[in-house]
From TrEMBL:
Span of domain HTH tetR-type: 11-71
Gene Ontology molecular function, alphabetical: DNA binding
InterPro entries, per database record: Homeodomain-like_sf, HTH-type_TetR-like_transc_reg, HTH_TetR, Sco4008_C, Tet_transcr_reg_TetR-rel_C_sf
PANTHER family: HTH-TYPE TRANSCRIPTIONAL REPRESSOR SCO4008, TRANSCRIPTIONAL REPRESSOR
Name by which UniProt lists this protein: HTH-type transcriptional repressor NicS
Coiled coil: none
Portion annotated as DNA-binding: 34-53
Keyword DNA-binding: yes
BP GO annotations: regulation of DNA-templated transcription
A Pfam family reported for this protein in Swiss-Prot or TrEMBL: TetR_N
Length: 212
């Protein structure tokens, strides 16, 4: 009797491929990642990889989307305490080095070209811009979008460039105490930035010009 893969078997294979792909792509990126190593780590043949995902690039995107979904579940949209939201963003990036590496590999590979999931990813960030605008009491315009981008940079850059953090702040930043000090500083800086952006947006006229 010929054996056929059941839906449960298919789901298990897909999960194993995503897990193996996460390790492979975090270490080697899209260009350097190899399908044969991913298949071997998952215990399947290469044809299964293409059968489930179609291409190496699509497998990478599936891996990254799964990692980002875990990240998003632990980090809701900005609320009233924006500084603490940036602090939690800082914590999440420090704790999830795999996500940081995958995101940086994606940036190196695609540069400024559209991503396969461009529209869906844009919608996620649009929701964050809207949430931040509500906190500031302003319309969700390009200024709020740039503020969000800057806040994300505050929270993510130290983990994305740990060597720069060490060179600028000193080796203490790599200790638990130094990490806590940097987090507290980033939270205060984010609070000050949002307060300034809020006053500017609320007090300015159209196009950011001062009121008459």
């Amino acid at each position: 009797m010929m054996w056929r893969m059941t839906p449960r078997d298919s789901a298990a294979t897909r999960r194993k491929l995503l897990e193996a792909g996460r390790e492979e792509f975090a270490e080697h990126g899209i260009a350097g990642g190899r399908i044969d190593r991913i298949a071997a780590a998952a215990g399947v043949n290469k044809e299964r990889v293409y059968g489930h995902f179609g291409s190496k690039e699509k497998l990478f995107q599936a891996v990254l989307e799964a990692v980002k979904a875990e990240h998003a579940a632990a980090l809701p949209t900005p609320g009233e305490d924006v500084g603490e939201w940036v602090g939690r963003l800082f914590d999440a990036h420090a704790a999830n080095r795999t996500m940081v590496r995958l995101t940086m590999w994606e940036a190196l590979y695609f540069e400024d070209r559209p991503l396969p999931e461009d529209e869906a990813r844009s919608d996620i960030y649009a929701a964050k811009v809207l949430a931040l605008a509500r906190t500031l009491g302003v319309e969700p315009d390009s200024g709020v979008a740039m503020t969000l981008l800057s806040l994300i940079g505050l929270g993510s850059w130290p983990s994305s460039m740990p060597q720069m953090a060490r060179l600028i702040v000193g080796p203490r930043v790599l200790t638990a105490a130094g990490h806590a000090d940097l987090r507290a500083h980033i939270v205060r800086l984010a609070d000050a930035a949002v307060e300034g952006a809020g006053h500017t947006a609320a007090g300015g006229g159209a196009g950011g010009e001062p009121p008459p």
